Amino acid sequence: MGRRAQRGVALIALLAVAVMAIAYLLTSRLNAASRFVGIDRDSNAMVLARAKRALIGYMAQQAALSGENNPGHLPCPEAPANFGTTNEGIESAFCAAPAVGRLPWRTLGLEKLVDAAGEPLWYAISTGWHRPNSMTTLTINSDSPGQLNLNGATSDVVAVIIAPGPAITVQAGGPCAAWSQARPAAGPPDLRNYLECGNVTGSYVTSSPGNTFNDQVLRVSVADIIPALEAAVADRMQREIAPALRSVYAAASWGTSAGNPLYPFATPFANPGTSNYRGVNGTYQGLLPFTSSDAACGADPRCTANFVTWNTGVGPTVTASGGALIAPSCSFPNASTARCTGIYVGAGTVTLRMSARASNLAMALRTLAPGNMTVDYGLVPYTASGSGTSSSGTFNTDGSANLTLNADVPGLGAGINVFFRLTADLGVIADHALLNPANPTTGWFVRNEWYRLVYYAVAQQSTPNALPAYGCDSTNCLRYNGVSPPRNIRSLLVLAGQSLSNPAARPNGNLADYLEYDNVDLGTRYEQRPPRASKVSNPAFNAPFNDRLILVDWIAPNPTFPVAYLP
Amino acid sequence: MPRSHIWRIRGFTLTEMAVVFVIISLLLASAMYTLSAQTDQRNIDETRRRLEAARELILAFAVVNSRLPCPATAASNGAEAFTGANCTSAYGGFLPAQAIGFQVVDAAGFAVDAWQNRIRYAVSGAAPIGCAVGPTLPHFINATNLRTNGITCQPNDLVVCRSATGITATTCGPATNIVTNQNIVVALVFGTGKNGTSGGGGIDEAANTNGDQVFVWHTPTPVGAANGEFDDQMTWITVGELYGKLIAAGLLP
Hints:
- The complex is a heterodimer of chains A (567) and B (253).
- Chain A has helices at residues 2-5, 9-32, 37-64, 105-108, 198-201, 222-246, 443-447; strands spanning 99-102, 122-125, 149-150, 153-154, 157-163, 169-170, 179-180, 203-204, 216-221, 285-287, 309-310, 317-321, 324-334, 337-359, 366-368, 374-378, 384-387, 390-395, 401-425, 429-431, 454-458, 479-480, 488-495, 525-526, 548-555.
- Chain A has 567 residues and is an alpha+beta fold.
- Chain A has seven helices and 25 strands.
- In chain A, helix 3 runs parallel beside helix 6.
- Chain B is built from six helices and eight strands; from the N terminus they run ααβββαβαββαββα.
- Chain B is elongated.
- Chain B starts with a helix and ends in a 5-residue tail after the last helix.
- The interface between A and B is large, with 45 and 50 residues.
């Protein structure tokens, strides 16, 4: 027995066991790190942050593109049908609420980002920030709130990006419904297999992981997204809104030109949510005179049919060229209609010319629509009708304008009397295209109510107030940024941006909540600084600051674009 | 006594020794195999971290300089390489470690991955599309032009494909082969993987080092796969990320 015990087989067996144990320990320790929740969450945080940055950047880049009618909208989640196919990662064109699904990584241009469990990210968007269908247009501007329910409260969150973590078994309790998660390879994916508890029902939670919850949620708030959107919108306003505004009253038919245009008066600044947006004579900065006479404008306080209307104390009168008039008679049958009747005699084409004065034209953005004037004529009253063909106008210093509307009618020869009747209702003074929410170039500005966040400034000398020798010069134009040599600016816009103190209190009538530093002092000098979002006021650094300048019109030397920021 | 003495010094038989050695070598081999796989995994993770760090450094460079850096070339030792105003090698260069301050470099100053292979870098150098004005070229690598041309400009060259099958010198070919579309990637950072020195021999890896604007990225494939071994690791910067970063820094629009 003693001899056998010394043969050492047991030692070899022991050695083998020890080697195996050490090998196991060695290999398992190498893997152990990844099991630590903290490291997983760190890694998820990096991936989520990258996704968030890509999402905001994508949104801003898209918003800057001409033709984007809903600037600021977020891409929909991956289309469920794309799950597991070669199209995975491509957004769904439209998404109804609740807009939740996998992050459209390919649309954003990312690689297929995965969390520490190897699972692609998920993503949910607040109502109002995603397009449910092709018919719905959104209203997104600096004051738009997030509406996602996060941690039990409706918050300023516009989207959440979620790392779903490994599949777990969810126990019933609280907001959690019992569910055993599985991750089938084929779609469409079931939400419950990836997200847990409140994240399934749309009450998103950012809480720590536990036995029945292992989602890691990153919020994308209004404050995250709006500065990027404002940059894109300011860029687009410079390209699309400034030229439209420049051309409103700059045409030979107004007696003006692109080289020396007139600008409407501003609306005194008041709560942009309730202002009537009517310009006031002698007001040179404030809100855009965005009052509309469009019947479709609805209950909006800026909409009224009879702000720009006939001045019934003057005229109307009628003259003719190419013929003669017999017993012309003109009147205003009502406040919104000018009418002239009589008899014309002539050979060939006779041009009937009605003149009348419109009030408040320079307090709004209007364009003449002579086609809306009707002319009835005939040997007996009236057998034929036509419409106006051309028009012109000249402004008066009080902002009214004398309008001339022309209509061509056929003369039947010398000595043959033809009855006529010219009727011009307020349709001949139509809203300028800039006010039209359906305009393909500028409609986004109206529909998304960006005009509520825009401060309009004009040099006094470039308004009708300075007639007849109007036009600002180096002594009285607006100035910006102290550039050298000084540029002479006829008109500019300031995009006020998000409230830096309390976004929830918008809209309000406090100009200091909209503009900062040099822009708020009611002077003629404006400034553009880099956006600074600090919560603490620091005049030494002009912080906080989020105004953006849009130069509408200037006198040579031209400003350099894009505008160089002050420090 | 003499007999028992003989027993004591007898030792193991050859057969016993052989069995023991076989067992030990088997155990060691399996342990070594696992260790080598673990080392590879570590190197892959480390390379991924370095690529991410490179990405962040490039974006940080963009914030400081208002532009993207040009790639380094074999002759520039980790410094940006310009020819006139353009990059000497927009699509076929290396990460400009010196310009962006990348820490892990080889003796010549090039950024390296965990296998000491040089990290490569490509930047959008062709004329962008969709610009509101101009564009004055070059766009992404020139601070003045980047700002003047504006944030509607989208890159129009770099593209990432699923495989090299069907690609051309400028596109991925069939739509099913596309990972990113042509108007989204402004810069691309990638490592050539463990087989970087020898080259994988497959057409997918070859597409990444041929100096054109078309790149291939997919999950790793072993030797013998249809398009050869593939172990390149890649990350890229989208135009939205770049503009978003520059907007946040107050440098755009």
